[in-house]
């Protein structure tokens, strides 16, 4: 890695909070929306509330091993744009608390979605060594 592209923090929680803090601005319909998965690790909803941003939920598909469906991201961002300005897409891979692991193809779709919608993509991969489902492999967003 290039040392100029490395951000050090006192832990993952502080890093998440600091990154979101850098991206939050505006008020009313220009207020920053932060897209977070449901269910999710409560750090995200707490940080969004603390920074006075708008929590934009997208729902993981429980019936499909908690999959992240692009059509759900599209629904979520479209609805959010009626009352805020979505700027951040948070993805937790592997998921916490669900344990789902995104496929390489799904990750590529998510990256294209974020680029198309002009969203800062924040990939939380802190649990990458915690994969227990047979046949699953971790793929990074980087």
Topology overview:
Elements: H1 12-23, E1 32-38, H2 43-50, E2 54-59, H3 70-80, E3 85-92, H4 104-116, E4 120-124
Parallel strand pairs: 1-2, 1-3, 3-4
Q: How would you classify the quaternary structure? A: single chain
Q: Could you spell the SSE succession in H and E letters?
A: HEHEHEHE
Structural class: alpha/beta
| Strand order within the widest beta sheet | 2-1-3-4
Choose one word for the global shape.
globular
Major sheet details: 4 strands, parallel
- Unreliably modeled segments: none
Rg over CA atoms, rounded to whole Å, is 15 Å
- Global mean pLDDT: 92
Span between N and C termini? 11 Å
Helical amount: 25-40%
- Determine the number of helices (DSSP H or I, runs of at least 4 residues): 4
Secondary structure: number of strands: 4
Estimate what percentage of residues fall within beta strands: 15-25%
Structure summarized in a few sentences:
The chain is α/β, with parallel strands linked by helices and 142 residues long. Helix content is 31%, strand content 18%. The chain is built from four helices and four strands.
Question: Could you please describe the fold and organization of this structure?
Answer:
- 27% of the residues are buried.
- Strand 1 (32-38), helix 2 and strand 2 form a beta-alpha-beta unit.
- The chain is globular, with a radius of gyration of 15 Å.
- The chain is α/β, with parallel strands linked by helices and 142 residues long.
- Strands 2-1-3-4 form a 4-stranded parallel beta sheet, sandwiched between helices.
- The chain has helices at residues 12-23, 43-50, 70-80, 104-116; strands at 32-38, 54-59, 85-92, 120-124.
């Amino acid at each position: 890695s290039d040392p100029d592209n490395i951000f050090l923090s006192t832990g993952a929680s502080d890093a998440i909070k600091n990154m979101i803090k850098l991206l939050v601005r505006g008020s009313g319909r220009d207020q920053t929306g932060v897209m977070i998965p449901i269910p999710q690790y409560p750090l995200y909803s707490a940080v969004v509330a603390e920074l006075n941003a708008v929590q934009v939920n997208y729902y993981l598909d429980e019936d499909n091993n908690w999959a992240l469906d692009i059509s759900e991201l599209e629904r979520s961002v479209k609805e959010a744009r009626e009352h805020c300005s979505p700027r951040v897409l948070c993805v937790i891979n592997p998921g916490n608390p669900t344990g789902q692991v995104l496929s390489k193809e799904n990750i590529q779709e998510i990256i294209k979605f974020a680029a198309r919608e002009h969203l800062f993509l924040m990939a939380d991969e802190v649990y990458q060594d915690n994969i227990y489902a047979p046949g699953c492999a971790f793929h990074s967003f980087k």
